[in-house]
Design goal:
Blueprint: E1 2-5, H1 8-14, H2 20-29, H3 34-47, H4 52-62, E2 69-70, E3 75-76, E4 81-83, E5 88-90, E6 95-96, E7 101-103, E8 111-114, E9 119-120, E10 125-128, E11 132-135, E12 140-141, E13 146-149, E14 152-155, E15 160-161, E16 166-169, E17 172-173, E18 186-189, E19 193-195, E20 200-201, E21 206-207, E22 212-213, E23 218-219, E24 224-225, E25 233-236, E26 241-245
Parallel strand pairs: 2-5, 3-6, 4-7, 5-8, 6-9, 7-10, 8-11, 9-12, 10-13, 11-14, 12-15, 13-16, 14-19, 15-20, 16-21, 19-22, 20-23, 21-24, 23-25
Antiparallel strand pairs: 1-18, 17-18, 25-26
Length: about 250
Amino acid sequence: MNTRFHGSAQKEFLSEKKSLSAKYGALVVGEKGPWRFLRFELVNLLFSWIPGALGLALRRAFYPCLFRKVGKGVVFGRNMTLRHPRKITIGDNVAIDDNVVLDAKGEKNAGLRIGDNVFIGRNTILSCKEGSITVGDYSNISANCSLLSETEIVLGRYCFLAGQCYLVAGGNHGFSDLGRPIMFQPSFSKGGIRIGDDVWLGAGVIVLDGVTIGQGTVVGAGAVVTGPLPEYAVVAGNRSLLIRDRREKK
């Protein structure tokens, strides 16, 4: 297991050596230079909140300049929160609903990559904390999901995440030192999360660090996945109880 320290963003913000604008630039904009800072602020100020077709058209015209790469036919919803957008790549025909968080912050991480024909639902959070997130083509992430990565989260093609799914790669805290706050003690990684093609996670599924889910697997609503799952399995329950193999005839 790899060891890293948690709370780097909080440490950055609480630093007394930097001005407030420098902290904001480092944590949110992710680029140095007054023009990049001003461009980020103006685009968000002028276009992020506008409703209706006019807002969609204006964001479609002006938002791509903030990102590393944006494909054709991308739809940006209202009130999105962007952090380090120059580390974010978005494919063709992607639809991003209102109030979505796309956070690629980190110094050495790969950031966030969203494939073609992906839908990201309202209030969903994709957040990198020195990690990376990859969403495969044709995947659908429903409303109120959270994908948090200190290492790596990889979703395959045609994945479907129902509402309120929670995936966290990293963030396994040590707590042996009683003299230090837990947030400042080492955080252990178990290797991230890898989900194969054509996987369906039901509503409220929790997937923990170190998990691999095989192609074609279905995970029932409310399940907590703590270990690897084979291909084409149907599982449910807090311990991901295997119900059957989809390839077997009833």
